[in-house]
């Protein structure tokens, strides 16, 4: 049976919520931006008037101000955005239980089974848009298609507050002329590779020889080819069936650039402590530690290493991370942001092979110590007990990744 | 001037979970009885800026919208 899948995208979500709550922002160019003083100073969302000034999500606040000096920039209020996100999803839930969130402002909604109750796909999409506009006060773009990839393309096709339907009949006219970079998971690097093969549009890709694509791009070649031909057939997962955790990580853009390993060490330990505490909270241990490094030119890389034992001890995670930082940072350019991630997770308190030479007693003691610290911090705050090194630089150590609200970008391939 | 006016409200909580607003208490302490509620629906207020559960209320024959936004009540101020 042909599926009917909606991709619903809340237009300029953060900015729309702010404009709803502050009528005075509606008639001026306005954007939601991070905290410039803490150097999280990028545009997160903008309203339609700001869009006219060609202000782009992700650019620095100073760049945006150059384009539009009178731009009003407001700080984000994440708890309010989460509330609105829940309210909108409650509307989707009136029509189906197959609702797969893709970040805070997007979701796939599979209405195949309930569509006959509500008329045509176009009518139902318009009805959902009307309800979100009237009941919540936000505008929504809905893409309707027979698979998730085309539904997402369709929701990007016309904004704001519009419905676009892509069928097998019109896909050649609508989808194929679009640049191949519009496909989900074709980033700049992949697009460049495809351009070298003479592939510029999605249609070029669809009509390309699959065998050559696979030879040049590996399994990604096949994914992309299937996407372009409308053959993608993954299902929309049920609401609430959150994927199991595969990794736990924290990263931060530091308030000032990092220029030596002492700087790195302070931030690394804070991140590792947060990651270890979150592992313990979830009763998990990790066997792999990954670090993420980005310099002031925004060039980034990731490096990973195995631990000798599954661990949820912050010292062990931090030391592994520090080794990776030492091996991979040359300080040709100052470092702007770093991250620490724990993966290859297993349940804690499982039996495992002890090392003949490792000091298990010391590990047990460290763990007991860290658990005590968890309890103290829970009662008296993160700063009530901290490592001496944190006092070297209050600016660098003055953040709490475990508590500060972070909304992580999501990956399409969650499995 | 903001068109959103948070107000004190005296309510009646029914055993089925429904909330019925009975009086609005204005800043000067005057209680205005709500004669009738004709519609309860989730709605956005573009005038006041906000969204919540909208109660269409009648005060002395006049219709006004009263919104329950999470745990606070507001009305749309006229000419705001």
Largest sheet of chain A: 5 strands, mixed
How many domains make up the coordinates of chain A?
3
Radius of gyration of chain B: 12 Å
Summed over residues and divided by their number, the pLDDT of chain B gives a mean of 90
- DSSP strand (E) fraction of chain A? 15-25%
In sequence order, what are the helices and strands of chain B, one letter per element?
A: EEEEEEE
State the distance separating the first and last CA atoms of chain B. Answer: 6 Å
CATH fold category name of the largest domain in chain A: Alpha-Beta Plaits
Radius of gyration of chain A: 24 Å
Characterization of the model:
- The complex is a heterodimer of chains A (415) and B (80).
- Chain A is built from 15 helices and 12 strands.
- In chain A, β10 (284-295) and β11 (300-311) form a beta hairpin.
- The mean pLDDT of chain A is 88.
- Chain A has 3 domains: 1-171, Reverse transcriptase/Diguanylate cyclase domain (Alpha-Beta Plaits); 176-228, 5' to 3' exonuclease, C-terminal subdomain (DNA polymerase, domain 1, Orthogonal Bundle); 247-397, 2-Layer Sandwich (Dna Ligase, domain 1).
- The two termini of chain A are 25 Å apart.
- In chain A, the strands form 3 sheets. A 5-stranded mixed sheet of chain A has the order 5-6-1-7-8. A 4-stranded antiparallel sheet of chain A has the order 9-12-10-11.
- Chain A is α+β, with helices and mostly antiparallel strands.
- Chain B has 80 residues and is an all-beta fold.
- Helices cover 0% and strands 66% of the residues of chain B.
- Chain B has no helices and 7 strands.
- Chain B has strands spanning 4-13, 19-25, 31-33, 36-45, 50-59, 62-69, 72-76.
- Chain B has a 7-stranded antiparallel sheet with strand order 3-2-1-7-6-5-4, with no helix packed on it.
- The model of chain B has no long low-confidence stretch (mean pLDDT 90).
